Prior knowledge:
This protein is an alpha/beta fold. It has helices spanning about 20-35, 45-55, 90-100, 110-125, 140-145, 155-160, 165-185; strands spanning about 5-10, 35-40, 60-65, 80-85, 100-105, 135, 160-165. It has a seven-stranded parallel sheet with strand order 4-3-2-1-5-6-7, with helices on both faces. The chain is globular and about 45 Å long.
Amino acid sequence: MQGKIVSVFGSSTPPPESTDYQMARALGRRLAEAGFVVMSGGYRGTMEAVSLGAKEAGGFTIGVTVDPFDRWGLKANPYVDVEIKFPTLFQRLHYLVTAGDALIALPGGIGTLSEMALAWSLLQTGELPLRPLLLLGSRWRRLLDVYLDPLYIREEDVGLLRVVGTPEEAVEALQAHVQHLAERSPRPLG
C-alpha cells in the first residue's frame, strides 16, 4: 500500500444506476489514478462505488466496517482490499474521521452528515491536525447556505470546508494540497 489515504464518507442507499453512485465511482477511479489509497465505510452504495472505481484504476482500498452490522447480514463490498472492523459504530466513525490524510464527503444521509460534522468539529477545535475536508456535490452547498450563520460559525471555521462540484475538482484540490506540503517541507542539505 502506497500513497496518502483519503477517507470518503458516503451512503449505503444509492443504487448502481444512480448519479451519486456513478459520481462516487468516478471519484474512486480519479483518486487511484492520482496515487491515493481510498478508504470508505466499506459497505454498498457510494461506499461500494468509490471502492469499485479505485479497483478499476488499479488502486488500493480499505473498508471500515462494524460488528453490529453483521447481524443484519451486511458484509464489506467485494472491492475492499483490507477490511478494518470495529465493535461499535462510534469507534468506526472515529477511525473514518481521524485516519485519513484527507476527507471527502459525498452526498448522503444522517451517517454521512455525522461524519462530516465530526470531522469539521475536530478540525475546528484543533483535535484533528489540519487536512483537506472536501464536500462533493451541489447538495452540500445548499445545506451550507441554509446552515451557516456568522452568529454561530466563524468565517475561519467555514474556511475549513471546501465544496467541490466534480470528482476531478476534488482530486485537483488534493493534489494541490500534497504539492503545497511538499514545497513546505525542509529539503536535505548537501
